[in-house]
Write a structure and sequence with these properties.
The structure is a homodimer. Helix content of chain A is about 45%, strand content about 15%. Chain A has 19 helices and 14 strands. In chain A, the strands form three sheets. In chain A, strands 1-2-11-10-8-9 form a six-stranded mixed beta sheet, sandwiched between helices. In chain A, strands 4-3-5-6-7 form a five-stranded parallel beta sheet, sandwiched between helices. A three-stranded antiparallel beta sheet of chain A has the order 12-14-13, with helices on one face. In chain A, helix 13 (about 300-310) runs parallel beside helix 16 (about 405-425). Chains A and B meet through helix 6, helix 7, helix 8, helix 13 and strand 9 of A and helix 6, helix 7, helix 8, helix 13 and strand 9 of B.
Chain lengths: ~525, ~525
């Protein structure tokens, strides 16, 4: 890297007003120089990635979220989504949209909704919403989430959008099935109120076709969940709420151009990846604390937590060597959280670097006195915190944006997508798979299998009137090594008090300090 | 501790169904035995604290959030708040409540609202809300936050509740002043639409009295912001939304009873504090990842982040020795986030312990197939994740609750309040002050002072037509050592384009790779 730019390491894009300032990261020129060759190799890999190489070897997949942005806004698919959303808004019979998806299919759309519309879109009058529908999300298999949404949805005026690449994601499938049952119970046909975003030929695709759903949008196999926000997955929920999605993609494309620069000193994604590498000594030894000084960008920490930790938290490197990599991310909005976890950042453990994101444009001008407005205070608090932290030798990276709008959000998403991909090259891992999630899914299936065995046993005459501890129950239902799982299911059954298998109900009581169970 | 209970370390409260299971924390009996004497000393301190000792020596304050719960629900103040809230609901002229507070005055009330009512309270019909008002929050000095609220508030039907112990908290004061200006602009008197929760004699108290505010609720000096949720600070917003706050306090009291037990093995707060101590070797060397398996408790991670990090993140111990203590907390809800940061927890850095919180009762029964309901899947995913994590030797603590209701939330709050206080004794720090926040406030004041100097200079004839870099501007306005702060203010002015001091406006452009500024 050229010393001129690296001391201090500041990147400015005059066109958009984007500034990345790494002065507070305490990077030494020698550290940066050592990364020049690895970054050049990483750059070559990024060129290969964008040219269509298989960069997700485990899953034998291309990775197209960067290159897709080049063409997406001019594609037939883009126009189709826009036309669909306009027709929904103009049609008048749909007033509410329920977005059903998890992980990348939930966090990105939620981040964008909040950035574009703030927290109260649904409470605005129809005219203020330009007659675009209200938006709701279900993103878990907690019955409370769906019940809370159903309490305010008018099913006859609701469009349910189910987003799942494979269609096999259980949480999303559960919400879809429970929702369909709610339509059935209400005597309203589901198909005309349902839309899907999924891979052609997937389980969901087949289901939606069989059910004559109103619309099915195809999703490419090369799009990963956590990097799908500037593509069809982000587009459908955004367009339905009247968000200018072309601006999101344009922001992403603009950042892509800035971050294709082979000179690390002139490339904000490479600078950021280098700063992460140096701060955490290539092993994520410092937490990244994301602090957006913006209510509208309040979900940024949560979004980046997924993007970064799911991408970089890996057991093995590309050669199969056990490395237990990762980069921990958390954070809530500044300045209010300065009255919360910032106490520890100021005074406590020096095990982090903070990443400040500050949109400079005030949403509104509220004068507080003759010289200071509400937004001036926000800036003053941010500067004060940077000063306090750096004064104590704590590490700070700063991003400054012109505004908290959707173009700038598109820029941020593309910046972090590339920083993650490049950092993954530096530490030689696959950023695009998630084997730990698969492992956990398999473990969950085993646990569910125990429940089925338990139900089988509960239905037998032997279970009638039975009482005893979890170990005895586990032995009785033929899985003596599954005491823990059996106990969990018995607890769940006892608290819910619902009849299962042959009408049996479970109760529990503490006997000699442990739970014991009874079957009626 | 008695070995019988510590192998495995499980605490069960049969009455409420609360279970704390530390089996997955890998605690060794020898480690627990070593903590017996420190925990006995900590217990003696907790007894002193509840008896009214000065446990916040820096600020010469008692700490009464535990003992207050003994009497609060039977107090005149409690009845006064309830009567006020009932009168508001019955009166019909107030339909919306804007809660204005930050830190503890925002996170606790938000957590409770979400737990009691889910995310869509404001969208429910008045009858479903039992005619209690809709609830909104402003918790920052970001103009977007207030502008978004004002877009949906009908000021004539709104009650603005300002919560600030001292009344000097700038973010809260700013929102209050801007809100008052909005009332003035709308020609609606502010006083009848304003209520305060503050310390008698505070700046806010005096202001509210002078403005003939509708109601002023007194707040005791001995209540800290981050431990105020079961007292007046939590009560007023909760009661206004019709939440059964007596149940919250009862939950807290019930947990207080359980956690006054001098035997650590029978005291869940002491067990938890011991587990934290052992996992992080008394220095917070592992992050605590809070994973509530409950949409309604989705804010638990954020709430605990404040409670724990603001309390434990300290530079010095009680003897003035530099220790840089802390315990990092983050987390979002399970199981959906299993598709996000859980990849790293499963496979990546082993630098954490997970704390699962599972309410067993399903909010609603949605069958997915003949044998499994939506809530069964949630439990299966939780068990699967515990199995996956512990199978890899990762550390897991588990809390199981009967339900995600306000009584159980009260229990959780009291549990963590005491675990924090006891852990602070183990590491010999003051859990009840926040000197780092004060330091940051002072730094922010310095930054704001630079802005006033800059404005002064901008108003001079010399500034007219001026252009140059930040260093030159800093020199020109008489603070040559404040280049960074001057640059920040010039950026802010340039992007917002508003006229300041003598009508001057600032613009900026990139010259030779750095921002340069112009004054009109």
């Amino acid at each position: 890297m050229s010393a001129a730019v690296c001391r201090p390491p500041v990147f400015i894009d005059a066109e958009s007003g984007f500034t990345l300032d790494l002065t507070g990261m305490g990077l030494r020129p020698a550290q940066l120089a050592k990364l020049a060759a690895p970054l050049a190799r990483a750059h070559a890999e990024m060129v290969r990635l964008e040219a269509g190489a298989i960069k997700n070897p485990d899953e034998n997949r291309k990775v197209t979220h960067f290159s897709d942005r080049l063409t997406y806004a001019d594609s037939a698919q883009f126009r189709e989504v826009e036309a669909f959303a306009r027709a929904i808004a103009a049609g008048g019979e749909i007033e509410q949209v329920l977005v059903n998806g998890i992980g990348g299919s939930a966090l990105g759309p939620q981040l964008l909704q909040q950035a574009a519309h703030g927290p109260y879109w649904n409470e605005q009058a129809a005219a203020a919403r330009r007659h675009f529908p209200k938006i709701y999300f279900v993103d878990n298999t907690d019955s409370a989430g769906l019940a809370d949404a159903l309490a305010v949805l008018d099913l006859g005026k609701t469009l349910a959008v189910t987003i799942s690449k494979s269609g096999g994601t259980q949480e999303t499938k559960n919400n879809m099935l429970a929702l369909e049952a709610a339509y059935r119970a209400a005597g309203i046909p589901f198909g005309p109120h349902a839309a899907a975003v999924t891979m052609p030929g997937s389980e969901l695709d087949r289901y939606a076709r069989a059910g004559h759903w109103r619309q099915i949008f195809p999703m490419a196999d090369s799009i990963g969940g956590r990097t799908s926000e500037t593509n069809i997955v982000g587009h459908v929920p955004a367009a339905l709420a009247g968000i200018d999605f072309a601006a999101v993609v344009a922001g992403g494309r603009h950042m892509d151009e800035l971050t294709r620069n082979p000179d690390p000193a002139q490339n904000p994604a490479y600078l950021l990846a280098a700063a992460w590498y140096i701060a955490g000594r290539g092993k994520g030894e410092r937490n990244m604390v994301v602090v957006p000084y913006s209510d509208r960008l309040g979900l940024m920490g949560k979004y980046l937590q997924q993007l970064v930790m799911e991408s970089l938290g890996k057991e093995k490197d590309l050669d199969g060597k056990v490395v237990h990599q990762g980069l921990t991310v958390f954070g809530n909005k500044g300045g209010t959280d300065a009255h919360a976890y910032i106490q520890q950042l100021n005074d406590g453990r020096d095990d982090f670097f903070a990443l400040f994101i500050e949109p400079l444009r005030d949403a509104a001008h509220y004068p507080i006195d003759a010289q200071l407005s509400m937004g001036d205070y926000l800036h003053g608090f941010k500067e004060g915190l940077v000063r306090a932290l750096t004064g104590k030798g704590r590490r700070v990276a700063e991003i400054s944006l012109a505004a908290a709008d959707v173009f700038n959000l598109g820029m941020l998403i593309a910046l972090f997508e590339r920083a993650v991909a490049v950092y993954a090259e530096l530490i030689h891992i696959n950023a695009f798979h998630q084997p730990g999630v698969q492992a956990y899914k398999l473990a969950s299936k085993d646990v569910t299998a125990v429940y089925l065995k338990l139900q089988e046993w509960l239905a037998t005459p032997a279970a009638s009137g039975w009482h005893g501890g979890a170990a005895a129950a586990a032995a009785a239902c033929g899985c003596p090594e599954q005491v823990r799982s059996v106990a969990g299911w018995l607890d769940k059954l006892a608290v819910n008090g619902r009849a299962v298998a042959a009408g049996r109900r479970v109760s529990r009581a503490v006997v000699a300090g442990v739970w014991e169970y009874g079957v009626n």
